[in-house]
Amino acid sequence: MTDVKTSIATTGGYSTTTVEGAYDLLFRWALNVVPQYRQFVDVRPQQPSMTGSSQTLQLNQYFSEATIAAAKTPLTEESDVDAVKLPATTYVVLTPLEYGFANVRTLKLANRTMVAIDPVIARAVADHMSKTVDALIQDKFASGFTQTQFATGTTIAGIAATNTLTADQVRQSVLKLRTNMAVPWFGDYYAVGCHPSVVYELRKETGSGGWRVPNEYGVDQSNIWNGEIGAFEGARFVENARTRVAADGSSSAYVARTYFFGREAVAESVVVEPHIVLGPIIDRLGRFKPIGWYGDFDFEVYRAQAAVINYSGSATLLAALG
Fold it and tell me: What is the pLDDT of residues 123-182, one digit of tens each?
């Protein structure tokens, strides 16, 4: 006689009343590393007279090349030099503004959830804060980096997906910074902030002047095995997947922004550091709890000659963004 089994599949009631799907009581997060461009801010007010509605940073200038040329004339025994006044200072004005974001959770949710919900909300809000700050500072790069370089032509609209960042463009950007006597960021290296697809295109460039050949035939191939670009042509690359990309190239091709930094390229003024805020419960029954972030700050380009913004396309990875 064939056995009749007591099972979830065939025994009435058991699949719906005694057996339920189980839940892991730990909420896991999508991996989301966000290296912020704020790491390249190294100018801040040092001796402000007060907090104020804005803060003006004074930027001293050096004597002009004309005064240097004039000083090359030898003095005669009985002559004296004419005094020359210091060059006028220039100004960078930082105007902090308030920014913030909030989430409100209900008491009913907190009472019925299987896990502590407030830490979950706080972590999501903190992620929102870091991404917002990253976006705000890149807005200032877009408007304040006056030294530009294009993968082809002289406009963003003329860049196609095939006009990728090349080794020679890296050399040209570094040349601009060295010509401007910008102080390097990492020892003798300038810093480069870029989208991962830009690094991908640069690493696969062919030819003797590109990145790959010396790494293939040099004494050390670890950069290839590790998939990292490291330092190249006087610049050290830092990848950030939130680097600005827009479909504003030729035929709506994606164009990536790549930032080259020297020292003192960007300044900030912070009245209140961006931080998580646990808002007060203000409803009559104490059922709604706000959790948000708040900050009062501003970023501005400080030394435009210490920064270059490069515009380039990507024939491969950026297509995935569509």
Answer: 999 999 999 999 999 999 999 999 999 999 999 999 999 999 998 999 999 999 999 999
Coil, helix or strand for 274? strand
3-state secondary structure 82-150: CCCCCCCCEEEEECCEEEEEEEEEEHHHHHHCCCCHHHHHHHHHHHHHHHHHHHHHHHHHHHHCCCEEE
SS3 58: strand
Q: Which of 216, 223, 210 is nearest to 168 (CA)?
A: 210
User: For the stretch 28-63, what's the b/e string if a residue is b when 16 or more beta carbons lie within 10 angstroms of its beta carbon?
Assistant: eeeeeeeeebbebbebebeeeeeeeeebebeeeeee
Q: How far apart are CA 94 and CA 268, in angstroms?
A: 7
DSSP at 81: P
Contact of 192 with 235, CB cutoff 8 Å: yes
Q: What is the CA radius of gyration of the chain?
A: 28
Residue 290 CA, distance from chain mean position: 28
CA distance 43 to 304: 13
CA distance 75 to 111: 88
The answer to pTM > 0.70 is yes
